[in-house]
Design goal:
40% of the residues lie in helices and 21% in strands. With 311 residues, the protein is α+β, with helices and mostly antiparallel strands. Among the domains are: 161 residues, 3-Layer(aba) Sandwich (Aminopeptidase), CATH 3.40.630; 55 residues, no CATH class. Strands 1-2-3-4-5-8-10-9 form an 8-stranded mixed beta sheet. A two-stranded antiparallel ribbon has the order 6-7. A hairpin with a 2-residue loop joins strand 6 and strand 7. The longest helix is centred in the middle third of the chain and has 17 residues. It is globular, with a radius of gyration of 21 Å. The two termini are 24 Å apart.
Length: 311
Amino acid sequence: MEAALVDEVLACLPTNRTLFHYYKDQYATYLLQRVLNKNGPLSMQQLKQSSCKQLLEKPFVREILHTTGTQKVEAWHLENASVTDMHHYVLTLGKWGNRYGGAQTSRPGHNLVLQLNLPESLDAEFQRITGNAMNELTSRNHPQSKKRTATLAWARLDINFDSDEVLIEEIQSDLIRLLEQMKVQAQTGKNDGSNHFNWRGDTIPCQPMLNYCEKVAGAQKKIWAEAMLAACLWFIHNELGISKVFYNRFETGNQMKNIDWCLPPRSLYTDLPEKFCFNLTEEAPCFIREDRKVRRKLNRIQNPQWYLLTI
């Protein structure tokens, strides 16, 4: 998308912090509520025939729906989920790319970036242990937040308001990888009988770092990708007002973005969208099909496919 459009979107959206609260599998209730709000109250049989039928197998969803008896299911029924282990995040926005390409975008131009940030309290604890903010130790060549200091993950979005489409180009986390690497170094130092380990010139205490990684990475590793995609869909639906969401499939996305080495985790571009009820499609986003230069690249790809969600 054009840089001016990204700037316009950034200018139109709230500038204050946006809190995002998430518990494991919350996406299931969110998507089912979207279906029910769109189609009205539905019977269990109708839900089983919907595009979100796989979500009915979630134990907590089954428990909620069991309480409805034989009556039709309404969106508000799904607000009665028993919530445990709520995670708290802050959403921020950024900009990524350039007009010439080479920034791992499917077409030359810019992406809007949605960033999922940890609470300041967790970064303050990290700083007490390491002397650095989290974002100071992750890659500065990636779109981390400029407003917050602990970016857990981000998603890059290419948007076309004329066709009411969004392409989720990428979902990624540097922070999980950083914490796992630091945990290995801390454990190695401890096993060698040392109280400290060296990390990029800094001396860091082993046990406090191990405790921190166990607490933060241990919890976030299981949920960060799910929380990031859930935040993405909430943002696309409610802030951008768009309902047609494409998501790069592993092979097609890598070829469109010219990624030949250091490939991303396959599961982020297969298992994750499938879990969220995206369906495979050979339909390309309109702004990909109608761009002559990009279409030439697309024509060289054998059997290009994307994931698509239209709930």
